[in-house]
């Protein structure tokens, strides 16, 4: 007997949809994380999802929020769990790597107009930058904004390249059974660490 829309709505919730979508993302990647595939995994009709998530863009933003949840204070809490901007940057990198196409998903969410997630990430990092720096730049709100956004953009771009290299290496290895396992992104962690340090040196300089 076919499942009716009403019974589907009883089974569904926004958290269950996000969880199913995140599972598909980790298994198959962003390109295959379609609304239809999410609905199939939940054994409901695709139309039932739209009672909880407006469209795929909204779903991507919700998944991105779930991915970076460990980094962003919730419920109006303006305190940070990180001791320094470097700690925050390292945690963002690890968080993005924890999910397949994590950097691409978060980038797509942050690019959406009026993204509250982007505002929250930048506010947290900006607060860290101004709290630990003794540079004159720290008192300039515009320069602190630029520094925070530059760090976030750098990490997103570098991590997206890192994940693309990893997937390319995996696909190449599958096609060549004699190929030795390859390090898809040699030294990527140190490159990101050094790149962030370079940005922060510029922000913290006395000139």
Q: Care to give the gist of this entry?
A:
With 207 residues, the chain is an all-alpha fold. The chain starts with a helix and ends with a helix.
Keyphrases for this structure?
207 residues; mainly alpha; Arc Repressor Mutant, subunit A; Tetracycline Repressor, domain 2; 10 helices; 66% helix; 0% strand; globular; transcription; DNA-binding; DNA-binding transcription factor activity
CATH class of the largest domain: Mainly Alpha
Number of domain units: 2
Roughly what is the average pLDDT, rounded to an integer?
Answer: 86
Largest sheet: none
Tell me the series of helices and strands, N- to C-terminal: HHHHHHHHHH
With helices defined by DSSP (H or I, 4 residues minimum), what is the helix count? 10
Pfam family, one: TetR_N
Domain HTH tetR-type: 11-71
GO molecular function: DNA-binding transcription factor activity; transcription cis-regulatory region binding
GO biological process, one term: negative regulation of DNA-templated transcription
List the helices and strands and how they pair.
Blueprint: H1 5-11, H2 14-28, H3 35-41, H4 46-49, H5 56-67, H6 85-97, H7 102-110, H8 116-132, H9 141-175, H10 188-204
Helix pairs in contact: 2-3, 2-5, 5-7, 6-9, 6-10, 7-9, 8-9, 9-10
């Amino acid at each position: 007997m076919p499942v009716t829309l009403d019974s589907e709505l009883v089974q569904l919730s926004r958290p269950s949809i996000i969880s199913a979508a995140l599972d598909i993302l980790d298994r198959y990647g962003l390109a295959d994380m379609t609304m239809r595939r999410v609905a199939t995994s939940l054994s409901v009709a695709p139309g039932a999802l739209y009672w909880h998530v407006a469209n795929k863009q909204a779903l991507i933003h919700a998944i991105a929020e779930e991915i970076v949840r460990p980094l962003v204070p919730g419920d109006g809490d303006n305190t940070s769990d990180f001791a320094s901007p470097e700690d925050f940057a390292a945690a963002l990198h690890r968080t993005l790597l924890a999910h397949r196409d994590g950097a691409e998903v978060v980038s797509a969410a942050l690019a959406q107009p009026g993204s509250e997630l982007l505002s929250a990430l930048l506010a947290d990092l900006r607060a860290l930058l101004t709290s630990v720096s003794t540079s004159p730049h720290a008192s300039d709100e515009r320069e602190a904004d630029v520094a925070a956004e530059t760090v976030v953009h750098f990490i997103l771009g570098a991590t997206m390249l890192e994940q693309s290299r990893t997937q390319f290496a995996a696909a190449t290895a599958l096609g060549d059974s004699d190929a030795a396992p390859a390090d898809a992104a040699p030294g990527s962690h140190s490159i990101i660490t050094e790149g962030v340090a370079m940005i922060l040196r510029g922000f913290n300089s006395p000139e």
